[in-house]
Amino acid sequence: MSDVGTDYFTGSVSKDFFRLFCGDRIGFGSARETYECLTNPEWVVKIEFKAQSFQNIFEWDIWLWVKEHGMKRYFAPCRFISPCGAVLIQDRTAPLPLNYELPKKMPAMMGDLKRSNFGLLNGKLVAHDYGTNNVTMQLNHRVRLASSALVKANWVPD
Predict the structure, then answer these.
(1) Which of 26, 28, 49, 58 is most buried (most C-beta within 10 Å)?
(2) Count of CB atoms within 10 A of residue 48's CB?
């Protein structure tokens, strides 16, 4: 188990919570870290440590929208979010094999097409990091989000 996340928790209750639910750190970005979920190996725990980045909240909001509008097959499901949005529980994906051929077409609403933002869930390609991408920027313009049309995918290097 990693103690990296405990740097952000100063109280004994929050440190205990972290140690009870969070295993090894398996990913990190500019505003949050992702940990194994000790209570359910099929989930991950995303902890947001950068103030006012709202990536967990954006991801949660996007998930709620796409699951109601026929686009959920492209996204790793979000299961729970803390009341303030600092902690998000999401389905865990498997890393993409090095020889995995990325699709030539993706939904028009997808942005930030980096290999590291995707994984396999039940053998299917899904986004597992979608808190900062075109979807987030389009969320307030839901008409554009409604398009599930596939367009040429412009994958960028990690």
Answers:
(1) 58
(2) 24
| pLDDT tens, position by position, 26-39 | 998 888 999 999 99
Q: Are the C-beta atoms of 107 and 101 separated by less than 8 Å?
A: no
Between the CA of residue 97 and those of 40, 116, 123, 130, what are the distances in Å?
23, 11, 11, 20
Instruction: Examine residue 117 and state whether it is found in any structural domain, yes or no.
Output: yes
Residue 3 lies in a domain: no
Q: Are strands 43-48 and 87-91 parallel, antiparallel or unpaired?
A: antiparallel
From the list 66, 94, 92, the residue with the least C-alpha distance to 79 is 92
Confidence of residue 9 (pLDDT cuts 50, 70, 90): low
pTM of the model: 0.83
Residues 6+ apart with CB under 8 A from 52: none
Q: Is residue 2 part of a domain?
A: no
Q: Is residue 158 part of a domain?
A: no
Could you tell me the residue range of the domain that residue 113 belongs to?
Answer: 8-152
Count of structural domains, the chain: 1
Q: Which residue, 48, 35, 43, 128, is CA-closest to 87?
A: 48
